[in-house]
Write a structure and sequence with these properties.
mainly alpha, elongated
C-alpha cells in the first residue's frame, strides 16, 4: 500500500512545515543582524536561497514572516509554561521553573528573541492583535503563580500584573550575555534570578 502523507490542519505536509521553519529561523538571523525595516525581501530571499514566489508560498508577506518569528517564540514559551504546570511544586518552585523554561527559549533562540523584543511594533492589524493576545496569555500564566503564592503565604500581597512585568524584565535581555559555552548556564542564571526575585517578594517575619 502507498504511504499516506501526514498533513496538518491546513493541509500542509511535514516537509512543507519543515522548510517553513527553516525559512523562519534563517530570516530571524537576518532581521536580528540588519533590523526588520532595513531588510529587503530580496535580502531575505538571498539568505534562504529561494525566489520571491517561494517566499510567498511558504510564508506570505514580509510582515507575515515577522509574525511567524513571534509565533515561534511564543510556541516555545507556552510549551515551557505547560511543563512548569505539569511539574507542580510550591509557588516559589514553580516561579523558578518558569524562569528556567523562559531562559532556555532565550538561550536556544537568541535571534528570534531579539526580533521579538525589538520589532513587534512593526506588526499591524490582526498580526499585532494576535501578538498581544498570546503575550497576555503567557503573562496570565505567570500571574497565576504569583497569586497562588500570595494565597499560600509564600509571597507578600502585591500587584500581580506589575510583578509579572518586573519578572519578565529581569529575564528578557539575558540573550545579550547568555551564549553557548559562556560563563553561565541557563540553570545558573535561572537559580540566581529566582533567588533574587523570590527574596524580594517573600513573606518574612
Amino acid at each position: 500500500m502507498p504511504q499516506t502523507r501526514v498533513k496538518d490542519k491546513q493541509g500542509k505536509s511535514a516537509k512543507w512545515q519543515a522548510r517553513r521553519h527553516e525559512i523562519v529561523d534563517a530570516s530571524a538571523k537576518v532581521f536580528a543582524e540588519r533590523g526588520y525595516h532595513a531588510t529587503s525581501t530580496t535580502e531575505l530571499c538571498e539568505a534562504n536561497g529561494i525566489g520571491k514566489g517561494a517566499l510567498y508560498y511558504y510564508i506570505g508577506s514580509k510582515e507575515q514572516l515577522l509574525a511567524a518569528i513571534h509565533d515561534r517564540v511564543m510556541d516555545e514559551v507556552m510549551l515551557g509554561a505547560d511543563r512548569a504546570d505539569l511539574a507542580g511544586g510550591t509557588p516559589p518552585e514553580r516561579l523558578a521553573m518558569l524562569g528556567e523554561e523562559l531562559l532556555d527559549v532565550i538561550f536556544r533562540f537568541p535571534d528570534h528573541v531579539w526580533v521579538f523584543l525589538h520589532d513587534f511594533p512593526a506588526l499591524t492589524g490582526k498580526n499585532a492583535e494576535m501578538f498581544r493576545q498570546r503575550r497576555r496569555a503567557y503573562e496570565r500564566r505567570v500571574e497565576a503563580v504569583f497569586q497562588q503564592g500570595i494565597e499560600s503565604g509564600d509571597f507578600r500581597p502585591l500587584d500581580t500584573r506589575l510583578a509579572v512585568s518586573a519578572w519578565l524584565g529581569m529575564h528578557n535581555y539575558t540573550y545579550l550575555s547568555l551564549r553557548a559555552g559562556g560563563r553561565f548556564s541557563v540553570k545558573d542564571v535561572a537559580k540566581s534570578f529566582a533567588d533574587i526575585f523570590v527574596w524580594g517578594i517573600a513573606t518574612r517575619a
